[in-house]
């Protein structure tokens, strides 16, 4: 690697991390940027995980102004590596190396940053491995598989001083940023409640049956940090979300992350004081889905403020008029906000402002991509260079992620509980038994 380029990336990233947590951009002088041109400014990337999410990264990676180079496409499934290579070949000139094992990718000192879009159980362990190898990380949601990993990924970012952007891309929406800024300035008075929701018509899934892993799948590496188990039919292709807690985080980690993050941001709150959940599996009751498919969760914060979650994965009755979004209530009005924009209402219910982006960001379809993913990725690149503040620094993303872990723990234990608002830990001893997980020996994430 060109030593000047690597030195620039390293120094700029240190500045970006400082900026992300409240320092001034003036710490990085304009003159220093002016002296850096061409390849010195280029960021070398790898992608880990080439399932349904990676197409959302093609546009920002291919954009000339991004000045990035894709060096590796990494996935434990051979066919996914090959399909992604063909897809990228339509948009970029260089030919990325196809790799099975992310550990070999991280050994390459040329790699500056990793886009991580694996199954959930890999997110924190993989992100920590990347940071320890000197890489910046774009970490898809959920940023953690459990509460303890939430703590570890934040600790790692602080220790290794890397740029870590959580992939909750609505944080980059201009409309969302505008209305939340207005909410914080009092446009709807004092906020007291937010309702975040997600509605989908997911179908029946097969009952798990033990079988040989499909050709081309490295089942051992797929499991990675998770304790070893026999392969069951079609686990690797999305159904890992619903086949127990080895790999997935149910719909809370899968989708509630996004809307709860917007609700918490709009309400300007951190950890809740109390969590209560009603959940169950109510559709296709004899199929292989092992999680709840319906959940109502209430997060109570100080000053009698609440966030409510209404999630219905497999009953597509559209009671809110949209498949996903967040409603914020205040003493003087209310706001509906989603990936498309927002609508502002007065106390009579009259719409007084409507701002729509036409972002075409995927909502309820598998995978995703669109303007928000592109802007979020490009913000990550510029934060590495020290030129922008991160839209979703991991220490904020992890607080929103904590809400999903609380809800999952409450659902699994059947218990409501109180939270320590200083450190986010649960007071209930039985609930804290699910704060972490059992790892495959040798794979435990350590900072």
- Series of H and E elements: HHEHEHEHEHEHEHEHHEEEEEEEHHEH
User: Would you identify the CATH H-level superfamily of the largest domain?
Assistant: Dihydrodipicolinate Reductase, domain 2
Strand order of the largest sheet: 14-13-12-11-7-10-9-8-15
CATH class of the largest domain: Alpha Beta
Can you describe this structure?
- The two termini are 27 Å apart.
- The chain is built from 13 helices and 15 strands.
- It folds into 2 domains: 3-169, NAD(P)-binding Rossmann-like Domain (Rossmann fold), CATH 3.40.50; 172-207 and 231-362 and 394-432, Dihydrodipicolinate Reductase, domain 2 (2-Layer Sandwich), CATH 3.30.360.
- Helix content is 32%, strand content 19%.
- The strands form 2 sheets. The protein has a 9-stranded mixed β-sheet with strand order 14-13-12-11-7-10-9-8-15, with helices on one face. A 6-stranded parallel β-sheet has the order 3-2-1-4-5-6, sandwiched between helices.
- The chain has helices at residues 3-20, 30-34, 55-62, 78-89, 102-106, 123-132, 147-160, 174-184, 219-223, 250-267, 371-384, 394-413, 429-432; strands at residues 43-48, 68-74, 97-99, 113-116, 136-139, 164-166, 191-199, 274-280, 294-301, 305-312, 324-330, 333-338, 341-345, 351-356, 417-418.
- Helix 3 (55-62) crosses helix 11, helix 7 (147-160) packs antiparallel against helix 12 (394-413) and helix 10 (250-267) packs across helix 12 (394-413).
- It has 447 residues and is α/β, with parallel strands linked by helices.
- The protein is globular and about 60 Å long.
- Residues 15-38 have low confidence and may be disordered.
- The longest helix has 20 residues, at 394-413.
